Structure formats: structure tokens, C-alpha cells
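Anyone able to model this chain together with shikimate-3-phosphate?
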Amino acid sequence: MKKRVKKLYKGLEGSIKIPSDKSISHRAVMFSSLANGKSVIKNFSKGQDPHSTMNIFKQLGINFEFKDSQTVIVTSSGKLTNPYAPLDCGNSGTTMRLVSGLLAGQQISATLTGDESLSKRPMKRIIEPLTLMGADISAIDGHAPITIKKAELHSIDYHSKLASAQVKSCILLAGLNTDGTTTVTEPSISRNHTELMLKYMGANINTNGKTVSITKSILEPKTIEICGDISSAAYFIVAALIVPGSDIILKNVGLNPTRTGILGVCKQMGANVEILSSETKSGEPVGDIRIQYSSLKSCNISGETIPKLIDELPVIAVLATQAAGETRITDAKDLRNKESDRISVTVNALKKLGANIEELPDGFLIHGKTPLTGGVELETFHDHRIAMSLYVAGLICQKEILIDGFEWAGISFPEFEELFNELM
Ligand code: S3P
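re: yes, here you go
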């Protein structure tokens, strides 16, 4: 689908509720499937990725009953059954990596497949630690399809080279049903939704700085209310900051400190972003945010901040084109391993729009403030975050742009355009 995006001559105004968090939705399905009894998931994501996870757990014998479009009753005996057919993870890296660890730990035999984009993404990062735990797991040249055969696992003490919540969660989920204590240490702290939700459901899991440990646990069924996704909120935050005259409120935004890197960046850039309220829902901090159009200055983003805003970097690059001075983003090499090579795709697209941006091996260098000219057609490369970031850039381009493959936004955020229309 080709999407035409035109310059906005009036600021964004009003307030919207941010839809369900993708990362937390995946985990709610996986963990409630392991709990014996009935769990309730409220505000489940409408995105395709969490639905890929749910379809897999249906194949593993779990029952999901929708009470309305976003409230799900999960009924499980606490045990999974061996699937008859390959498990299709679609476009979702979180599904493939977390489900691999979970199934290996539950001693289930299965094959996991993915779409064209997912089949190109690196899986050695999970095959290596799971093999060290005794799993029988294989893939062709480190890529999907992944085949797991029943094997008895043992605990490990794993030091990961990557700050990756997917790798960390994969190992912890394998450790959830393994004798002994499994520990994972990361170079910097990645999102901790797995830890918070497993704890909420009664698991023996503890965090000490960059190290998380887990011992064999039985999960209790719970009601899990999922907050709004700060990664989805990011498109509105950036749009309001760069479209003159904007003043918006985003409600129900997840404010877990392992995800709020973008708010720190906004502060450094001198943006008018204010947290209006906050509370805790199912173990996760949530709040409302007000964002007003701002005059921005450049900043540097690197090191331990990167995992806290990894998925927001393409739209932060759009933001930096409108900040005075040089914004340097480094230590983000793993962006090349996402749904697309987000470093090269972002740089090429923003250059075509008239931005002054350079590609670095592990990030970008952006010289602002530059007017965006537009008047071109751009590709999304099967990547939802590229589709949505380009839409935001299009709102300030002098000439309209065409985004080819815009339907990929539905992977995480099918309500994206409807919500933008509400603020226009
Ligand atoms: C995710 C972790 C991140 C993120 C992805 C979702 C998760 O990936 O980019 O969109 O839900 O655990 P990595 O852990 O590979 O950095």
C-alpha cells in the first residue's frame, strides 16, 4: 500500500490514549500460557506480532477466548503440547527468540519459521546460550527456521555480549523450568518486562544491577492489564515537537525506566515534554505526557542509553534533523539487525528527504536544523518502525511524499493513522 503524506500547516492538538505495548503483550500470552488456570489479559495489542505469538500458543494447546477486541481469557493446564506443524513467528523477532527459550525449557519439540525479514535476522545469539544449557537446537547458518528437539536442560551463568531483552528473556524462560539457578548478565540494562511480569506471576526471579537470576518456578494465573506502548507514543512525541503550534496529551503511556530513553533525549534537546501523572498497572509504571512544539538543540546518544530507546532511533533521527547542531548517535550497531538495517535505511531515506545525515558503522551523525524538501517516494523494507518514522517526517516536508509498503505499520500499531487523524 502506498501512503501519501502531506505537510501539516496547523499544529497537532488534543489528547489520545496510546494503544497496548507490543513487548508486554507478547509476554502476557507466553507467561499466562504456562500458568495452570484462567488468566485475563486486558488491553491486548491489535498488532500483528503479538497475534503471531497467540497463534503459536493455540498450536501448543492453549485456549484463548476474546471477551471483546482486547480482553482475552487464557485457559491453560500449565503444560504445552507438541505442535503438529511448524510455528510461524511472522515478522516477530521477540516471538522467535523468546518462544525458542520457553519451548526448550518445557522440553517441547518444534520448528519455528518466519517471514522474509525475520529469516534474515541473526539467531546465533540465542542458539549459543541454549546449546550451553543442553538444548538440542539448530538452524541453517544461524537463521530461521529453527528446530528444537526435546532435551533435558541444565542451568547456566551466562555473560551476554549484547544488551538484548530478547536474548536475556530467552535464557530466563529456559531457566524457568530448569533445576538450579540460571543467571544472565548484560553489558547494560535492557527492557525488564520479562522480569517484572514473571515476578508478578510468582516466579523466583531476582535482579541485581545488570544480573538477573531465576530458579525453577510455577506461575500463577493473573489478570494482566497492559499499558500503552512508549515506542508507539514516540511517533506522536516527535511529531508534536517538530510540527509548529502543536500541543498534545498522550494518555496511558508505559513509563518503565528501561524504556524511557526518548524522554531523556527530549529533555537534553530542550523539548517541552512533561509527565502529568503516573501510577502502577500490573507491576509497570504508566502515566500521561504533555508535549508542545519546541525549539530544539542537538545532543549525543550512546552507551547505556541505547537499549532504553533502541526502537525509537529511526524517529529520533527525524527529530534530530530539526535540532540545531550536530546530533551523534553511536553504540547502536544492533540496529542493523532489526526488521531492516535501520541505520542504512534511515540514512538513505532521510537523505532523499533533504536531511544532512551521515551513516556511521554503529549509528548516525545528523546536522540540523535542515528543512525537509520531500517530493519523493520511499520504501519501508518490511519494517513497521521505518514506515511510521517516514510518515512523521512527511508531516514537515515541503512537498508531499509517498511511502511504499505503509501497511507494515500494522505489525505493531494498526491504529497509527486513525490516531494521527484525531489530532489533526
Ligand atoms: C524487544 C527487545 C528489543 C526490541 C524489540 C522488542 C522485546 O530487541 O528491539 O522490538 O520485546 O524484548 P533486542 O532485545 O534484540 O534489542
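The mean pLDDT is 97.
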